[in-house]
Amino acid sequence: MVDRGFDVETECRARGVRILMPPFKTPNQTKFTSIQVLNTRKLARARIHVERRIGRVRDWTFLNNVIPQTLLPVLSQQVYVCAALSNYQFFDL
C-alpha cells in the first residue's frame, strides 16, 4: 500500500510485490468512476489499520532515540522485534 507520488512500481514488480495505490484523475477526467470510488474507500479503511500499527511501533522509545552506528547492521531485526512485540500490546479502540 503506497500513497500517490511514490514511484516504486518497477522495483516492486521485480520482486513480485503487488502495489495497492489510490487512483488519481487524468487531466481529462473530471471525477472518479464508481469502481475507483469503491477502491479508494476500501484502501482508506485498510489504511486506518496500517497507520495505527505504524503508530504503535513508533511508540517504542528505543526507536525514538539516536541509534549508534554500531547497531545499524542489526537495526532491521530490532525494528522487526519491536513490531512483533507491539502486536501483543493492549490498546483502546
Automatic annotation (TrEMBL):
<dbReference type="GO" id="GO:0046872">
    <property type="term" value="F:metal ion binding"/>
</dbReference>
<protein>
    <recommendedName>
        <fullName>DDE Tnp4 domain-containing protein</fullName>
    </recommendedName>
</protein>
<keyword id="KW-0479">Metal-binding</keyword>
<feature type="domain" description="DDE Tnp4">
    <location>
        <begin position="1"/>
        <end position="87"/>
    </location>
</feature>
<dbReference type="InterPro" id="IPR027806">
    <property type="entry name" value="HARBI1_dom"/>
</dbReference>
<dbReference type="Pfam" id="PF13359">
    <property type="entry name" value="DDE_Tnp_4"/>
</dbReference>
